Amino acid sequence: MNTRDIYERIYAGFIAKAIGVRLGAPVEPTIWSLERIEKTYGEVTQYLHDFKNFAADDDTNGPVYFIRVLRDYGLDFTAEQEGRTWLNYAAEEHGMYWWGGFGRSTEHTAYLNLRNGIAAPASGSIATNGAAIAEQIGGQIFIDSWGWLNPGNPKRAAEMSARAASVAHDGNGLHGARWVAAAIAQAFVATSIDEIVAAAMATIPGDSEYARVAKAVIAHHKAHPDDWRSCQKMLVADFGYDRYPGVCHIIPNAGVLIMAVLYGKGDLPRTAEIATMAGWDTDCNAGNAAAIVGTFQGLQPGWDKYRKPINDFLVTSGVLGTVNILDIPTFARELTVLGQRLNGEAPDPLWVEDFERRGLRFDFDAPGSTHGFRAEGLNRILLRHTDEVHTEASRGALEIQLDRLERGQGGRVFYKPWYRQSEFNDERYRPMFTPVADNGQIVKFKLKLDPWNGDGNLRVVPYVRRAMSGTIEEVGAWQIPAKDDWQQYEFAIPDGSAEAVDEIGVSIEYFGRLKFLGRLFLADFEVSGPGKVTIDPKLEQLEWGGVTRFTWNRGYFTMEGGRLHVHTASDADLWTGNAYLRDQRVAAELTPLAGGSHLVSARVQGTSRFYAGGFHDGQVVIVKQDHGTTVLAAAPFKLELGRDHQVELKAIGDRLTLSVDGKELLSASDGAYRYGMAGLRIASAGRMSVGRLEIEDFA
Q: Which long-range contacts (CB under 8 A, 24 or more apart) does 627-631 make?
């Protein structure tokens, strides 16, 4: 397979995963039995809930975050390193997993084991936790990316997935990981669903309970190839929830997963619908089955009713705020690059740049891709992908259909680099966001006009919108786009406001006499270069248990007197900025109120990997956190509670410097972390208030 084929199959598979999760989520609670779903919805042939934006789900959190072990520790990772990855990217009891309690939720149990020094794979073993916990469904639901990283190599996919899953699972839980990852890997090259199933079966012990339920489904399908409901009734009778311990055991759901793959006959919509109608863990089963079949089938026009609401946009809920605003084509490129590296191949240099991009690059290369663009304006502006028109640098573009605009009518076409809680009508796995684009960054894109009807008087102007006030800032002059060739637009995001930007795009207005009907094409959209983040707490709000524009781990937050107050009984962190900021300056107006630890942080790569500097236990310090604290530099400092200080930490190349009230006090050298977010930290019980926070990064 060539790189393009692999990329497009991964893209298709991940979209399919998102479709399955979104379709199954509304009927996930176990009260939704097969009979109740059928009585309420009949034959499922469309989404059951019209989400404004689908917030997040653990089924998609895991595939996005758990493969980051390859970034942090290299391609030949260990189970212990995967365990550290779990700790690093999850905020404790917020987002990422189902935090159902120790001894009840497999992931929560494993997380607490890891926190208490039980390293993987012991953290997820039957010996540590018992079979009931170790064999819950999580072994297979987070594992899809290991299949996408190994196209045509089910054996390696199974091995890597079991190693990753062993953080929380064992026994049949690991068999589920092997089965799903191997099925996805084989789906790239298979010529039939039966071939996929056979390849997956070859990776698990034939005498296991997982193999027993799989063989029962395979035999039933052979005898009754068109009656999935009779197969589900067999599963309820012979492999039902009543036969296995725990909240959500893997075996009943493995039966549904394999049933949906077989009875769906290689068609993504039907596969996801069967897994949803069958009941039990519907979002997990529909997501896994859809990922397998979507990778096998490839993108099809028949997916559109499910695909269009996805719009290439997915939300996750780890601690990296810009990663949580996921562009599916970009993530598919990331997986493609990782897979090439696993095979010893040299990826495209531009894709390598995308891998750690401080910004955005949308090329519309993937079939049907829209990169999450949206439109506002009288329902007269419609968006779709096209490959009819494109630039030399890409294979596609965004087609903006303008439907009978009258004089004075128009609207906006834009990408959203940031979201607020009010933009979601569901709160599954509560996400946290930091803006993907910041003041001072350079925005570039190309436009081309194709007028069909009207007198040509259609004009556009680039703009950004400020999130908290809704203020539209036009950047540059209104222009009539060129018709004969692509016209380049370029501007810097204005630096005059401390509000986040939540729209970047073009305003469109028609001022002719005749109704306008035609098309405008957008291509080669990019946000790049250094930027500046200014946080004024007076402009922020408390949302989703934290503070707008921040991700967080532990602690309690309030707004008092125009300042942000952070209070914790242990430790607490707030982070903002892009996940790939490199050289950076972090400065905060900081007032210690209680306790001995009050710091700012830089190059934050998660809860347990970062630099920090400030006040700690009677000293000024620069520390490195790597699942433990190393003091890189320290000097005595008599801290006076209640006194304001300007604390600044710079990370330039390998050099770290700490300044307090304009005076440089410490410096150190360390090259472990090249990029990351920035923010605030209290390392032990205490309280502080914070005024203005600035994060500036440098080219």
A: 627/84, 627/87, 627/88, 629/683
Provide the b/e sequence for 30-68 (b: ≥16 CB within 10 Å).
eebebeebeeebeebeebbeeeebbbbbbbbbbbbbbbb
Give the CA angle between residues 190, 194, 196 to the nearest 5°: 45
Half-sphere exposure of 70 (CA within 13 A, CB side): 22
CATH of span 3-315: 1.10.4080.10
Neighbours of 118 (CB within 10 A): 17
The C-alpha atoms of residue 216 and residue 250 are separated, in whole angstroms, by 15
Over residues 53-108, the pLDDT tens digits come to 998 999 999 999 999 999 999 999 999 999 999 999 999 999 999 999 999 999 99
Sketch the domain layout of the chain as residue ranges.
Answer: 3-315, 361-529, 533-697
Q: What is the pTM of this model?
A: 0.97
Measured between alpha carbons, how far is 293 from 137 in angstroms, rounded to an integer?
20
Please check whether the domain covering 533-697 is classified as CATH 2.60.120.560.
yes
Domains 361-529 and 533-697 share a fold: yes
What residues contact 445, with CB distance under 8 A and at least 6 apart? 488, 489, 522, 523, 524, 525, 526
Domain 361-529 fold: Jelly Rolls (2.60.120)
**Under 8 Å between Cβ of 78 and 167:** no
Report whether 91 contacts 66 (CB < 8 A). no
Close Cβ partners of 523 (under 8 Å, ≥ 6 residues apart)? 363, 364, 389, 390, 391, 394, 396, 397, 398, 445, 446, 448, 486
